[in-house]
Amino acid sequence: MPPSQHAQPVVAGSAKCLVVDDEPSVRSFLIRMLQAQGFQCFEASSGREALLVLERIGELPLIVSDMRMPEMDGISFLEVVRERYPDTSVIMLTGVSETSTAVDCLHRGAADFLLKPVSMSELQARITRALEKRALVLQNRFYQENLERQVHEQAVRIQELFLQGVQMLARALEAKDSYTRGHSIRVSQYAVATASHMGFEGPSLDGIRLGGELHDIGKIGTREAVLHKAGSLTAEEFRQISEHPVLGERMLAPLAQESPDVLRIVRSHHERLDGRGFPDGLRGANIPIEARIVAVADAFDAMTTRRPYRDSRPPADALAELRRVAGSQLDPDAVEAFVQTHPSGQTVAALV
Ligand SMILES: [Fe+2]
């Protein structure tokens, strides 16, 4: 049948199409019709040959394939195409006696089927429908993926803004107090060096870096008179200052999903191995390892910097003190890793 003069191109430009049929005359007839509709056509005389063509040219929008062919029949070919090229629309050609097989084709993912002999108008209508459906599927997927990406990007941005906010808050907290200025950054650096020596890397190391930086953020809720008191604290004042790990954890709740390790550090950095720490009185391995590492860094920095109630201690003394309390207050492995990474007790005070 010659191409109809009223045939409209189904696609703009030259979309690619593969025609698979063992009858050369049917093949060239189909190709002529498809070319008249604007397709750039490839051909194959069997399923096996068609797969070789696809390997060479890659995924394409449309395949028109006969059902009965030697070597590999239409159904087997269809199954392989669906698996390897899920976005290709396959239209199967069947004889009248094969209608039940044709329905089977649809169940197996064919876009449509056509009964032989094929008419130009019918072929055009089916192709249009199959390609429209394919375009919708691709469009939906694109929007879906785009939407998911945008939502994810926004979530990341919101988290970044939140983090910038609390990091600024941490700096502001320290800026008011000459004794603790730079404390959180130093603790973060000590903790990262120690954790890295213990084998932490990637996101877990990032969590320790951030947790070290924010470990005292809850002190923003502690009265300055208590924070900067030169003498010893009353029981009530101690209770107030002891709340900062829990307050800090509450402040950082928006990080709970993405960075739970940061929250663990903030909550548990004042726990002691012997269970006499706060706020939960956790013992030994019940204290999160990240918090045990930060506790060592925190203790070393507290000892080697001047506080309202005492002078700073020489780094070597501080290292000796860390070793003395390893096992009762501090984690011995974390202390050992700290000492290994700071063997002469050098501080990072010059950096901040
Ligand atoms: Fe603290």
Task: Describe, in plain words, how this protein is organized in 3D.
With 352 residues, the chain is of the alpha/beta class. The chain has two domains: 16-144, 3-Layer(aba) Sandwich (Rossmann fold), CATH 3.40.50; 176-351, Hypothetical protein af1432. It has 14 helices and five strands. The protein has helices spanning 24-36, 47-57, 74-84, 99-107, 120-175, 183-197, 202-214, 224-227, 235-242, 244-251, 260-268, 289-304, 315-325, 332-341; strands at 16-20, 40-44, 62-66, 89-94, 112-115. Strands 2-1-3-4-5 form a five-stranded parallel β-sheet, sandwiched between helices. Helix 7 packs across helix 11 (260-268). Residues 1-13 have low confidence and may be disordered. The structure holds fe (ii) ion.
Radius of gyration: 35 Å
Bound molecules: fe (ii) ion
Gap between N and C termini, in Å? 85 Å
Detail the poorly predicted runs: 1-13
Shape: rod-shaped
Largest beta-sheet details: 5 strands, parallel
CATH T-level topology of the largest domain = Hypothetical protein af1432
Q: Count of helical segments?
A: 14
Number of strands: 5
Widest sheet: strand ordering: 2-1-3-4-5
In a nutshell, what does this entry contain?
With 352 residues, this protein is of the alpha/beta class. Helices cover 55% and strands 7% of the residues. Residues 215-216, 244, 269-270 line the site of fe (ii) ion.
Jot down its keywords.
5 strands; Rossmann fold; rod-shaped; 2 domains; binds fe (ii) ion; alpha/beta; Hypothetical protein af1432; disordered N terminus; 352 residues; 14 helices
